[in-house]
Each structure stands twice: as structure tokens, then as C-alpha cells.
Amino acid sequence: MVAWTVYISFLGVVALMFVPATSSRAARLVAILSALGSLACALLGLLDYNLNSGIVTVQKFPWIPQLGIEYHLAIDGISLTLVLLTGIAAVVGILFSWNIEHRAKEFFAFYLALIGGVYGVFISFDLFLLFVFYEVAIIPKYFLIAIWGSTRREYGAMKLVLYSFVGSAMVLIGLIAAYVMAGSATGTYTFNLIDLAKFKFPEQFQYWAFPLVFVGFAILAGLWPFHTWAPTGHVAAPTAASMLLAGVVMKLGAYGALRVAMTLFPLGLAGWRFEIAVLATIGIVYGALVALVQRDFKFVIGYSSVSHMGFVLLGLMTLTTIGLSGAVLQMFSHGILASLLFAVVGRMVYDRTHTRELADLEAMQLNRAMPFAAFTFVIAGLASMGMPGFSGFIAELQVLIGAWQSFPVLAVLCGLGIVIAVAYTLRAIQKAFYSGQRLTVTEHTGTLPTISIPERIGAVVLIIATVVVGLYPPILLNLIKSGFNSALMAPLVNGGPL
Amino acid sequence: MNPFPHITAMTLVPILGAIIIALLRRDNNPWPRRVGILTSLISLLLAIFLWLRFDAANPELQFTERLDWIPALGVQYFVGVDGLGLVMVALTGLVVPFALFAADRELANSRAFIALMLLLEAGLFGAFTTLNFVHWFIFWELSLVPAYFLIKLWGGPNRTAAATQFFIYTLVGSVTMLLGFMAIFLATDTFDFFELARKVRGVEGGLQAFFLAKLGAVARPQTLAMFAFIGVGLGFAVKVPLFPFHTWLPNTYAEAPSTVTMVLTGVMSKMGVYGLLRILLPIFPDQMRILLTPLLWLAVATIVFSAFAAFAQRDLKRLFAYSSINHLGYCLLGIFAIAKLTQNEPAWTEQKAAALNGVILQMFNHGITAAALFCFIAFIERRAGTRGLDDFGGLRKVAPVFCGLMGISVFASLGLPGLNGFTGEFLIFKGAFPLATWATVLSALGLLVTAVFLLTLMQRVFHGPLNPTWSGFADLTTAERCLLAPAVALMFVIGIYPQFLLHIINPSVMQLVAHLAN
């Protein structure tokens, strides 16, 4: 069932080719139907999945048997969580692109191709296949930003793609090296992740292969100091693309790092663990500090993503059940919240006011002009600063508990990151919506279009997601934890592979 | 044993009210105020019901509800009240409708204002009844949010700065507290306050022993336990506040609308003291003993400095803000004093029980008195548009009832025997004197200065020649009298018959004292 998430997305791309270029309405309909179909498949797959069944193969047949490459799709608790996130983010992203008239057909085609690639990465258990999907997801991002973007879009798009390709190249080198090394030692060449992970790579090899593959993936997760593509890319992208970029694409990197780098090279992980945890912590604090001084509303959110993804990477490095499941929950939570924040900033505010300068927004009294946008941003902001009752709190709580166990000093530094997160979020809320200048309503605000129905639906869906997970986390936590019981993932927990 | 979830209902009613208000139409109509007052009164009724059904002879938790919530983290939905919780719940139930009745029409007709006040009430109810750290922390943090917006949107000229300062200060404390509790959770595998307290007292060496067992290889357990104590304690110290973490408070209380300040000082400031009693004292008695001397000095500094600071204020709101710090300082003195290590003799137990009873009584008393005083200030502002100490004079002549009732409240605040303030402070001083003699003696200086500045206030505002600007100063209307009469009556009732509260408090107090005994 879950495999259909990929197929329906690409079928949507094909269907869009038959839509007349002038009818943006038909393009929207095809896109939303395809996204809803994928989401439905994801949900059905989720309901079907038994928590005790570990890694369940969905589809598996030889693809290029000479090279030991298979078409192998499988799911476990971690995959399903991220597939669900992708489904929600994809549907909501289309709702927030409802107003796109300029080359709408192409926009949604690229959009669905991106989604299809992302779904594919999350459920591939053959490394070659995973890599193919990973690359498929990069190309549409470029066009989405370069054609429909704003502020320095060519620069942003190019930077993002170059960073992604450098990362991919690193991953590719590492994977081929692992493939050759394991193959020549055992005689059977395979890209099957589960089989490869059983092979004990020599320590010397792991010591350079691990950082190569891990960092290659983590570039896309915004690992400091390779994060600089993220803010510029997010800002340049059109709303739906920034929602996907921050919401889902950054998770590709974190997912790859967890699923591939950490399982294949446990000794390398043990050797580099502390260094990466330090980088993650720097990312948390640095991203928050930079967000604190931004003048552009969207850059605030862009840097906050870097900060929040730092929690994911830190959680991965704790190598405890609680820290790892916190990291995966943080992936989900940040996916929802980043989508929501970018939706407010990009669609609700920027599309209407045509400015993102906090100084300009201050004069507009947006809380009066758009109470719904203000309310949504306040909720999203509170959730993203880690207020209890929302999904971010439980995720960060778990990451921090894990960090306490593994790196107490870093945990304390992360506390600093949380405080700064509160400061920049409050600053953004105050400047953008509640400037407190008790002016009469300006002529600006009189002409702002009201928040449309699709936007309201999208915002409400995301708010419900974060509140439900925040108030009743077991709904996802049990699923995520089950992901760490399989033979592939289990060695990571409880102090790691040593 | 308890089929109807009283406490959950009491907490949910204001949230429901807020949702209903959010659904009302936008135009200025009286319905937000009506719904707000109605829901807060329903919550008050439920609180009164709780009070009546409460078995005072039983020191155990009552009306408990316990459900698994996040098993992976040992989080349960766990609520219940003992004497301490019940008194705080009653205070919340009383002060919030009091503030809503007192609110200006302009505020009361705003949907957002009433909805935020109700959310604040729900947060306070939750914070006083939940007994699992994560569950409790939700309310502890979420009560900040409505408070922030109430100040930010309806406050005085410097509201933005004040609201931000309030939020950031409290949040820094919350983060250190969170970090501290995570360390504790790692060591003990539980977030349940009562279980934690039991575990810690059940082992030789207390919390340190758990750190040693779990994390001994990583760090020095004694240092870690001390860090956890300081982290958690900082959260409460900011909230109460303890000198030198108090600087947010005068700005916040002065900038917030007076009706919001009623709730902030009346109830929200008690969250800090409550946390000290419920969490810090039972879980960290050993750490508190190690730092006892500096803590006592800080409490003395809080009491004395804030009294002098109040003396120097020219703004009535800032004056009462510092006076609030001063009054809660006595609670701190009492709490720190009973942490002192003593022999297990009945005489010491009696002193500790007296001090602790006094602390809880003082919390309730200050809640009522401070709320009433800020209500008077709200009325002054509404009539005069100003609240400088030197702007008035001779108001007694034109508004005798106003000055009479406010005078009673001021005397209650100053600790006149026969009124409520006296009983709490007397018990604290009586209990703390043998336990921490020098600190108590120095704190008495605070009492003296308080008397001086409060009497100065009465002289400047009520007495002297009538300032001709205010010859038209209206006396209390019938509605205002009806609103204030119960508060003033309560001051007399508790002052004359403190047993009314003490019989509820005492069993919990005795249990805590026994818990702290060696």
C-alpha cells in the first residue's frame, strides 16, 4: 500500500501533462487529488502496520541483478512516521499554493515529482534505489525556486543545488566504496541496506567513510557549518516549496544520515559521535542567534530551521532510545511547524503585503488586519519555541534527556538555544503582528485580501497535527520506538554499537 | 471511588468558556463579559464543592485522577489536591471572577481579553492540581502565554518591554528547571512529584545516591545533584521572586492593566511559592540544607530591600508591586527556615509546623489582600486617570467608603492583628525565630518599613487637605461595594478565625514536616 504513495505522485505528474496549460484550476485539482491519494495510501499503510513486525518489505524484485541492485521498498516505524509527515505536508503545501496562476501546471508537476522522490527515499531499502530517489528530489527543487521564487531566486536555487550535489557526491563515493569493499570480501555484491549492514567494515575504512556519508546526508539536514544553503534557499523559494524544503527535504538528510551512515558504519559513528554532537549544538545555538538579528521575516524562520534541525542531529548522536526517538519525533514536529511558519510568512503575509521587512510589517498592525494569520503564527511560534502541549516540546524533551545522558555539557548549552529561540520567536511575533503602535488602521491594511478558505484549512490541519502529537505523543512515539527494535536499527540504541 | 472528575472539570470549564467566547460575533457586545464571568463562577462553584467535599482530617491526596499518558517517559495524567493544593485552588477560583468583575468595560467587552483571562485561570488551576512534572510543566508554561498577551496588548505605555522582560525572565527559569528535572528523571526514572519525594527520602544520601547509581561514572554526583537543585530552584526563585531575580516584577505589575495585575500578584506569584513547597522542599531537602545560609540571606535581602524600595516609589502600582515582593519574602523566609536540620523533637516539629502553616496562610492572605488593593488602584485609575502617590490628598472627605475599605485592606497588608495578614506573618515569625534567629530578626526590619510606607500612603492619599482637582472624586458605587465587600469580609474572617483555613492546611503541613524529619 505504501509503495503507492510514490506511484500516485508520479502518476499525478503524468496526468498534469495532459492538463491544458491555461487551466490552473484543473492543475490544482489534479495536484490535490494526487497528494490526497498519496496521503490516503500512507494512512492505510500506517493502519495496516503491526508495531511488532519490524521492517516489512513492500515490494522487492531484481532490478539490475548483475550489480546486485534491487527494487526494494520496505517500511518500518521510522519510515512510516516520515511518510505520514510527507503526506500531510504535501497536501497542505498545495492548499497554500491555491493562488498560483503563473505556469501552474508546471509548478504542480515539479511539486509532485519532488514529493514522489521524497516518498521514495523514505521507503527504499536498496541504497542504489534510495540514491536515485534522493537525486530525483533535487532537480524539481531547482526549478521550483528558479522559476517561481522571489528574492535572489537564481542564487538561492543554484546554491541549494550545488550544496545538494556536493552532498550527494560524498554519499555516492562512500556508498560505492562500501559496496565494493563488502562485495570483494564476501563475494556477493549487493546494495541491500540490511545485508550491507551485517558486514563488519574495517575500522580504518569506517573512520573516513562514516563522516563522508554522514556529512554528505547531513548537509541537507542543515548541519552547521554546511547549513548556509538552507536560509537562502528557503527565502528564495515560493511558499509551497519552502514548506516542503524545510518541512520535508531537510528530513531527507537526517533520515539518510540515520538510516544509512549510522547503521553501516557503527565504528566510525563511535569515533565521530562527539564531534558531530558538538557541531549539532553549535547549529542549535548559532542558528538561534542569527535568527534573533534578522530583518527579513522569512530569514528568521529559515535560521530557526537550522536551529531546530540541530536538535535532530544531536538526538541522533545520543545513541539512546529516548534521544533517537526524540530525534525522529523532532523531524516530524519540525516538519509540521516549519510548514506552518513558512505558510504564514510566505503566503498569508508576503503574498498580501509584498514585504517581508520586519520594520515595514511593524507599521501595518497585522494582528488587526489578519487576526487569523496572527493567531496561526502565535500558535506555530509557541509550538516552535518548545512550549509544552505542542509536539516540539516532547521531541526536544526527549532529545535533551538523551543528551543529558551522553553529553551533559551540550545539553546545558542547548538550554541556552531554547532561551534564544524564545527570544527570536517573541521578537518576530511582536514585530510582525503585535507591534503595539496604536495607530488607526492604515490604508495598507484596508486593502489586504482576507485569508482564503484553503489557507484556513491548511493551517488548521497543521495546528491539529502539532496539538494532537503534543498532547498525546504515544500516537507517534510507539510507532517510532518500534522502528528501533529491528535488527538493523537496534544496535544504535543503548549506548551505541560498542 | 471518585467517579466524577472534579478537578479536570474545574480546569476545563474556563477553557470551554474561552472557546465559546472565541466563537462569539465580533462586535462590541456584553456577551464576552457575561460568558467569562459565568464560566469563572462555575469554576468557583466547583472549587467550593471541592472544598466542602474535602476530608480535612485526611492528609493524603484527594480527588485523584490518574491515567497513563506517555508511558515511554513515565508521564501520567495525574491530578489531585491536598490541603495546600485546595487552598491555592480556592484562591484561584476567588480571584479570577473578582478581577473579571473589576475589569473596565472597554477591556471586558473585548473577546480576546476575557478569553485570555479564562485561559490564564485554567493554567493556574492546572498548575496547582497536577502532580506529574511534565503534566504540571504544561500548565506552568502555558499560563505564561495568556499573561504575556494580556500585558502586551492592554498594558501601559511600556507594555512591550515589560511583557518581553516578564516572559524571558520566567522562561529562563523554566529552561533551567527543565534541564534540572531531566537530570532527575535520568537518575530516578520518574516524573511523579510524590514518588520522587518518597524515593529521595527512602535512600541514604537522597538524590545524590541516585545520581551515583545511575551516572556515577560520568560526573560527581554531589555536584550534579546541586546543579539540579539550582536549576529547578531558579525557576521558582524567578517566579516568586527571590532577590536578585525580582527586577521583572515591578515593571510587569506596573505596566499590566490593574485587573490583570490582580491575578498576577493574587495567584500567579503563588505558583512559585507553591512550587517551592510541593517540589523543591520535598525533593531537595539535603541540597537546600547545604545552601541554607545563603538562601536565608537572600530571603532577608528580598524582604528588606523590597520594603525600602516600596518606600521610595511614587507610583501606587509600583509601590504595591514592591510590597508584594516583600510579602512573599516572608514565605521564602519560612520555607528556608524549615529546611534547617534539627533534632527530631516535638518542640522543633511544632515550630516547623507553625512556620509552614504560616507560609500557606500568608499565600492565601496575600492573594486576597493584594488582589483587593490592585482592585482599588484600578478604581482610582478609572476615576482619576492617574495613580501617583503625590497626586492625591484628602480623598477621605469626598470618598469615605472608598478610603475606609481601602484602608482596611492596607491595614490587612501591613499585618494589623484582627485582619488576615497578621495571622500568617505571626506564625511565620513564631516558627522561624528559633530555626533561623538572625534572619528572622533582620526580617522584622521589613515589617517596620512596610508599616512606614503603607501609613505614608494613607496619609498622602486619604488624609491632609483635599486636592481641589479631585473634589468630584466619586465614592464607590453600589456594584463596586458589592464586589469589594466579600474580599474585605474575608480579611476579617481569616484574621479573627484563621482556623477556617488552618484546619484544611494543617494535615498536609504535618505530613510535609514529617517527610522532612530524619
Topology:
The complex is a heterodimer of chains A (498) and B (518).
Chain A: H1 3-17, H2 24-48, E1 56-64, E2 69-75, H3 77-95, H4 104-123, H5 127-148, H6 153-186, H7 193-198, H8 203-218, H9 229-236, H10 239-264, H11 266-292, H12 297-318, H13 321-353, H14 358-362, H15 366-369, H16 371-384, H17 391-406, H18 408-432, H19 443-446, H20 453-471, H21 474-483
Antiparallel strand pairs in A: 1-2
Chain B: H1 6-23, H2 31-53, E1 62-70, E2 75-81, H3 83-102, H4 105-108, H5 111-129, H6 133-142, H7 144-154, H8 159-188, H9 193-202, H10 207-215, H11 221-239, H12 248-255, H13 258-283, H14 285-290, H15 292-311, H16 316-338, H17 346-384, H18 395-398, H19 400-414, H20 420-435, H21 437-462, H22 478-496, H23 499-516
Antiparallel strand pairs in B: 1-2
Helix pairs in contact in B: 1-2, 1-5, 2-3, 2-5, 3-5, 3-13, 3-17, 3-23, 5-6, 5-7, 5-13, 7-8, 8-10, 8-11, 8-12, 9-13, 10-11, 11-13, 12-13, 12-16, 13-16, 13-17, 15-16, 15-21, 16-17, 16-20, 16-21, 17-19, 17-20, 17-22, 17-23, 19-21, 19-22, 20-21, 20-22
